[in-house]
Every structure is written in C-alpha cells, then in structure tokens.
Queue: 2 jobs
Job 1
Amino acid sequence: MYHRTRILDRDVDRIVVPESRRQALYDLAHGQVGCHFSVHKTKQRIGLNFMCPNLVRDVVYSCKCCELCQKRARITYRDCVPIEVGVVSMEPVFSFFYVDCMGPLFNSKAQYNCAIVFLDKTCRFPHAVPLSNLTAKHCCEDMLSLWQFTDVPSRVGMDNANNFTGELTREFMRRIGCAPIFCTPCHPEANSIERTIDTLKSLISKVAQEYPRS
Ligand SMILES: [Zn+2]
C-alpha cells in the first residue's frame, strides 16, 4: 500500500509501514544506518520513503529510549538531582537557639530601631523582639522572657558582639545553665540566623513602604 505526497515538487509514493514492522524501521533508521542522528534527521530520513501515522511521536520515543544516545547525552540543568530531604536534626525542639541582633533598621529616628532575633535550630521557629537599644541588659531580659515559654535551651549560638560576650550575659548564661557557643569571627555563615534576619529585614522594609507614617 502506498501513500502519495509531494516532496520537493515531485510526487512520491511512500510505503505505508504496517504496525508490526515499524519498530524495526525506527531502529534501522536511527541506529544501524542512521548513526544515531537526532529526532529531526531520523524523522526526515524515514519520511522520504515511508509513511507511518504518528511518525513524530514514535520517532521521539524511540530516540529517547536509545541506550547509546542516553549514555552520550549532554548533561543539562534538568539532570540535577533535587535534594529531597535536608539534614534532619535529631536534637529536641527548643534545645538550641541561635540569637543575634538586628539593626539599626531605619535611618530616621524611631522608637524601636533594633531587634533581637531568636531561631530554633531544629524546628526553625523564629522570634524577634523590638528594642530601643542593644544593651546586654535588654538582651538578657528578652532572652529570659522567651525562655519562660520555651524552656531554657542547653546551648545558644551567638556571634561575638559585645552585648553577648560581655560579663553580664556570661553570668546570666551561667546562672540559667545554658552554654553559649560563639561563632568564629568573620564567619557569619556559621550562624544560620543571618538568613532569618535577611528575611525579616525584607518583610519590615516592605511593610514600611506601604505604611510610611506608622
Ligand atoms: Zn541512538
């Protein structure tokens, strides 16, 4: 059975390939004599002499399934394996807090221009308290007020700011039975709260643009 069509201004009678012989034709056109050409060239090569319904779909499928082509395929961004599960922390919730100070937030004079930010290491629970200034006394008071609800953590991660390394904060930590862990200087990536602070700053700046007077 033939199918008549016009190719390059000439009438061509193409053989209609029965279903049982199609796979052999695709293998021949792509693999054995086709040197593993792409879908487009394989399709062209078959289309000159043969006619099959759903030719495009079948050729795409058979080229994709070719084992040799798969092994030599370029690596694209689609081949990146997504990280399905992050690093799961086995520590109990509220046993390790990151603490850091944020501010000054505004250039103009504001009542609360700074904030102390807390982040739980396990459940990533964030908490921020606005402050008028970042003295050690204010920081200790806010730590105590949060830990009244969440229980005192066994360890706290901080940077080397004066209000955390000071005598008052050290004595406060000693009395409540909490071990401070100070980050290496000039390595803020050790303190994962920095990411939270960035998010908070972006939130505050967006709200401040919407309500500039309040
Ligand atoms: Zn191939």
Job 2
Amino acid sequence: MLDETLFLRYFMDFPPASSGLLVLFGKTDPGFVFLLFLRHIGILSTHMQSGKTNLPDFENSEVAFRNQSNGDLRRAYHLFRVVNSKELVWLGKSLLHISFALHLPVKGFIRNTLYRHFVGGESIDDCSKTICRLAGGNVQSILDYALEGEDSEEVFDATCEEVIRTIEFASHNRNVPFSAFKITGLARFDLLEKVSAGDPLTVGDTAAFSRVKERVEAIFRRGYELDVPVLIDAEETWIQPVLDELVLRCMAKYNRQRAIVQNTYQMYRRDSIARVWQHHRLAQEGGFRLGLKIVRGAYMEKERARAAEWGYPSPIQPDKAATDRDFDEIIRYLMEHSETIDFMVATHNEASTLLLASLIDAAGLARNHRGIFFSQLYGMSDHLTYNLAEMGYNVAKYVPYGEVRTVMPYLLRRAEENSSVKGQSSRELKMIRKEIRRRSKVMH
Ligand SMILES: Cc1cc2nc3c(=O)[nH]c(=O)nc-3n(C[C@H](O)[C@H](O)[C@H](O)COP(=O)(O)OP(=O)(O)OC[C@H]3O[C@@H](n4cnc5c(N)ncnc54)[C@H](O)[C@@H]3O)c2cc1C
C-alpha cells in the first residue's frame, strides 16, 4: 500500500499541508510521519475515487469575492498596492503621527482607505450591515472593540461596559458566536507589567489592580450568564503572566460546561507549546474546559528589540519555519484533544488552514463542530474565509470597530504586517487581480 506513487499522490492532493509534514521529516522520527500518513489514507482513498479533494479550494476567487462589487475590488487592489511597499507604509505612518499631533484633518482620508477596508464601523450598531453581509456568505463575526493604549480609569470602565455590550449583542445574534477584548483596554500597561514581573505595588497600584480584576471578572461573568464565549487577545510577552493568571482563575470558575473563557497563545513564542500543555493539564486536574485561540503573534519586532535592549534571550522563535512548525504541531495537539479543548485557529496561512481542515475531516468530526473555529481578520484573506464557509467549516471574521483615532494602532499594525516582502499583501493582490481578470473575461 505504501508505495512511492501513493505517497507522492498524497503530497499532490495536500500540497500546503505537505510543507508541515516535510518539516516533520526533518524533526521527527520517520515512524511518526508514517503513522500520520496512515491516518490520512482514509481520506486519500476517497479522493482517489472521486478524482478530486473535497477540501476548500483557496484559489477560488469567485467564491472569495462573491459579495464584493467591482468598485470594492478596485479599491482593495489600490489599497494593497500601497501597503505592499515598506517605504510607503513607513512614510504614511510618520505623516499620520505628525498630522494627528498637528490636528490636521486626515480622518476623512483614513476613513475612506484603511478604515473602510479593515474596520466594521464606529459602534456595534454600525457593524450590523457588515455582520449581515458576512452572514450572507455563511461567515460569522466577532466584534472587537479596538481601543488600546489608554490610561484613565474612566476609559477603562467605559471599555469594560462596551465589551459587555458586545456580549449582550452576541447573545441575541446567531451570527456573532464570540466576544473578544484586550486587557490593555482595561488596565494601565505599566501596572500589568509590574504585576507580571512580581514588582512591589504602591497602595494606589493595589487598588487599581483590584479594579482591573473586577472588570475582567465582570466581562467573563456576563459571558457565562448569557452563554457567549469570550476571547482575550494576547499582547506583549511581558504582560502575559498576569493575564494567564486572571484567565485561568476565571476558566476554573466559568468553564465547567463550556469554554466561556478563552485565552490566546502566540506560537512565535518559544514556550507556547509548553504553556498550552501546562494549561491543559491544569484544566484537567481542575475539572474545567480549556478554551483558546492560537495565532502566530503580532509583536515580533517589538519583542526582539526589547530583549536586545534589556539583554535577555528573545522569547521569539529563531525563524519563521520554527513558528510554523509549532503552530502546526499545536493544531495536531488540539485536534487530538478536541474532546476537552474548544479552540480557534486564527490565521491567514493557507498551509495551516488546510492542515486543520484535513484533520477535522480525517477525524470524522462535523465541519461545523461547535468547539472548532477558523478565524481571519476583517478585510484580509477572504479567499480562506469564504471558501472555508462554502465547504461548511465554522469560520468567523474578527471585526474591529471604534472611532478612527482609537483604531489607529490596529490599522497601523495591519499596514505593517501587509508590507513585508513575501507578506500578506502579495497574496491579497494576487487573489484580487485574479478575480478582476475573471470578471472581465466573463463580461466579454
Ligand atoms: C482572527 C485573528 C486574531 C488575532 N489575534 C491576535 C492576538 O490576540 N494577538 C496577536 O499577537 N496576534 C493576533 N493576530 C495576528 C497574528 O498573530 C499574526 O500576526 C497574523 O495573523 C499573521 O500570521 P498568520 O498566521 O496569519 O500568517 P503568516 O503570514 O504565515 O505568518 C506571519 C507571522 O509569522 C511570524 N513570523 C514571521 N517572520 C518570523 C520570523 N523571522 N521568526 C519568527 N516568527 C516569524 C510572525 O508571527 C508573523 O506575524 C490575530 C490574527 C487573526 C487572523
């Protein structure tokens, strides 16, 4: 059975997933690879009978952009052409900082470009149209109030109330399966840093930290009362210890039946696999369900720069291949433990997405299994999102919302991550170009 042709056929049927397997070849013993291969033979034989796979086809631009007008596509094309250039992004970022400092009227320009593409609206109500449009393609939405880097108690309280409103909104909207928030929207960064480092707190700090705990507790409690799972985003590694502690405490309280409280693990961290294992063990010992989202991680440059400046070993993987390897390894782990873990794979990476899709099928799980989600950011990777949804998998877009000024850090991160040479933007451009060509052929 295991002849060379069959093996090659396997790699041809699963070209992106094969990259993960080839990495395994270098790292793991051949026996394990062989076992993995055997696990897939069930799917393989089906494909061989039908002559094609039943997995999503990420090259299908027609499905990907079905609900975008020609005008939308053209706008997106120009936007990604601009953010594709590192120099232009750098220049734009500097000009924006200056313009905001000088109170120049740049909001209108941002609103019609980056904001329009990557943000759902200013308020929850504003996002309703976006949510309906996504739902038309069987895509769900996760409202993400995109406020970061504030430092007043009033703003923290207001953000907490806003996150609770997203939970209440989700509880009566079947197209919104989760809520999400960032701890830095609820707490001073330096306070989180101090608590994480175990530094002594002043009386004022201790009182402020009690309020942070109350806010986090209030959010998860509301999620529990209304049966809406709530994801907490991961940010810089040096504030993660306090976050893990708060989240695990809430998980023990609220994740008895279902994973209402969900943490995030950045696989560009060298220690993330070990942390997932450890937290899973704690969940099993404590009799609660682990809930989590995995991402690769969005703060790589900042992490490396701080480690170099402060003279400690970088917590980040040595290269992209190591991040990819851990990301795919944890997908396998999560699939093997899907009975005790609810999880979301949040990525724009085709190989990892296809790996999860094929493992769900190989395990014989329903594609809309309640505990397994794919997710992409609004305005990015529609070719993954819509093709997954088309094939019946659970997929949700993270839809950030907020006023122009408050979403600026988020927008700048998106612009930067799209400007790397082999980055996201080339992939977006390739798909948009393909769809524009396809539509013009259909018209002629
Ligand atoms: C729905 C959703 C939610 C998200 N939530 C969070 C969150 O809570 N916290 C967060 O930090 N990020 C979050 N992100 C962003 C995410 O971490 C990534 O920055 C982004 O998705 C790009 O990674 P990728 O897997 O999509 O694709 P890819 O393009 O395959 O990977 C790019 C990523 O690989 C890693 N990488 C690149 N070069 C190297 C290198 N030389 N060495 C090591 N690693 C490298 C970096 O993490 C980089 O972002 C989220 C993304 C999505 C889609």
